[in-house]
Amino acid sequence: MRSPHVISHWVSLADRQINLDGDPIFDAKGTGFADFARQVYQFMEISYPKFHKMDALSKLAFLGAEVLLGHAGDNEKDIALLFMNRSGSLDTDLRHQESISNPDEYYPSPAIFVYTLANICLGEVSIRHQLQTESCFFVSDTFDADLMYNYAAYLLQSGKSKKVLCAWVEYLQGDYRGIFYLVEEGKGVEHHMNEIKKIVIT
Amino acid sequence: METEKGIVGAMRNVYIDQINCVTPLGLDIEKSWEALLTGASGIGLVQRMGHFADFYAATIPDNYINPPFDALPDVEASFSRLEKMMILALAPILEGKKISSRTGLIISTTKGNIGTLKHGDITGAQLPTSAHRIAQYFGLETAPIIVSNACVSGLLAVMVGRRMMLMGRYDEVYVVAGDEVTEFVVSGFNSFQAMSSQPCRPYDVGRDGVTLGEAAAALSLSLDTGSIAILGDASINDANHISGPSRTGEGLYQSIKGALTEAGLTAGEVDCISAHGTATVYNDEMESIAIERMNLSNVPVNSLKGNFGHTLGCSGLLELVMLAKSLSNNIVLPTKGLYTIGVTGSMMLPQERSTKLLTIGIKTASGFGGSNAAMVLRKVGQHA
Fold first, then answer.
1. By the CB < 8 Å criterion, does B369 face chain A?
2. What chain B residue is nearest to A136 in terms of C-alpha separation?
3. Nearest Cβ partner of A192 from B2, B160, B254?
4. Is B291 found in the same domain as B246?
5. CB-based contact (8 Å) between B132 and chain A?
6. Closest Cβ–Cβ partner in A90, A103, A132 for B125
């Protein structure tokens, strides 16, 4: 049995902008990611103190999921999370490395070390939206539409998940790019490799 | 317009065909298994690693890895130590195999070549850099898939392979997992005060943390060959805490339940469980609660962390191949380092090796980020 799964909504966070379903909804001032993240947090009227403890990758994932799931606006909790990026947790890895590079100032911190795993950002989104669901973090040089498409389709068709939030979420040394899309039953563009590529690889 | 592709293999089985590993107990599966049967442990005192002195870990001496690696065909010295371990694990499985655009390679690791950061080499620490070198060595045509999902990575990588095969994307998949003991990881676990003062003691009343380990493990997945079938799997997040497990074991409970449901089996049909058992206070306690909640209290459970240490992104796969050996040989292994049970959930933890007819086994794993995974295996007669 084939279900008519579609990409219902998609969100991008890049170049100081948020786009929702292809239309700009927010333009930040300033240049750095920290500025951008803070302004999006305010724009979205979020109140979640844990946000401020997150590393940049988790903040990016958190904000993307916030815009997308906020817009999708239902209470469905059976949403799988499939995230992918190029650099894993390398940005935070560098911070941890810095803390252990000088024998005279050796100060590794558990608050940083915990973020040296790429999938922590999945955990942050799961906690925020109470998603006790399937999740997986993939690392790939460039966005692997083939993998993302097939794995999401499997989760939906096998009944392991009702919806799947797929994302490319990359952060390294100030450069960031987050693209998020929701696959579910209903209205939207067809869940098809070409459509995914159009959304993610621009 | 094409519609979404369907699951082609809904009623098909994916089999674990060949298995191998490179561990402190042996450079292949047979040597590692034989050592396990004697109750051996690869854990020893590491005298010095950067800032750290005299801590316990299960490491592999370089002079174990290099001679067999150098004996492989067409190898270059430029491979990293971890890449050498992974290639050594995968080489005997891939030898003589036909490779096509429908052959998949999945690589599981948490930290890859993280040691290169010490020398300021950022590109070297990017996981795809390493994955491509491994894929290229074996002449694989498809881009390798990398799963980096904390301590469930190794088991999750096998799930990803199975699921991609059930979607009809691959005809066969090779999975290789590996992680090293590095100062990077040791300093982090130490900052968490999560390192054991002695070789780790999973589920023991006196357990005080993990003992890190390093290893590589590999297997091949086939649609028609193999003596172990994967009947079901699930990987459910706790949605509770990024560095601590759910107190109720919710994500693990749901993972085991989901895997058994897919397998069409009940708890009463399970013969043995290879659990995660890191020997941290909270992880082991959580597992005992999930196992009791699943009505699996009468099923023998073990953790192999006392033998191999915690090999992070490798552990799920390493312990899965050892579970496959257990099923094939009808042998239940004990938990090394366990003397007095110190978890509140009711679970059966044999302290001696025993022989028992085994058919159904479950492998579980849990990790940071709230991740959990469970997979149900069935021993079948040698297929094809």
1. yes
2. B149
3. B2
4. yes
5. yes
6. A90
Do B32 and B166 belong to one domain? yes
Respond yes or no on whether ipTM tops 0.90. yes
Would residue B4 count as lying in a domain? no
Q: What is the pLDDT of residues B297-333, one digit of tens each?
A: 999 999 999 999 999 999 999 999 999 999 999 999 9
Give the CATH number, domain containing residue B282: 3.40.47.10
| Cβ <8 Å between B167 and A126 | no
| B1, part of any domain | no
- Asked if the structure places residue B36 within a domain, the reply is yes
Write the single-letter amino acid at A57. L
Chain B contact present for A90, CB below 8 A: yes
10 Å CB burial of residue B148 (0-12, 13-18, 19+) is buried
Q: Do A135 and B190 count as a contact with CB atoms less than 8 A apart?
A: no
Q: Is B242 on the interface with A (CB under 8 A)?
A: yes
pLDDT in tens, B214-226: 999 999 999 999 9
SS (H, E, C) B292-339: HHCCCCCCEEECCHHHHCECHHHHHHHHHHHHHHHHHHCEECCCCCCC
For chain A, which ranges sit under pLDDT 70? 1-3
Of A2, A126, A127, the CB nearest to B4: A2
Q: Per the domain annotation, does B357 fall within a domain?
A: yes
SS3 content of chain A, % helix, strand, coil (to 5): 40, 25, 35
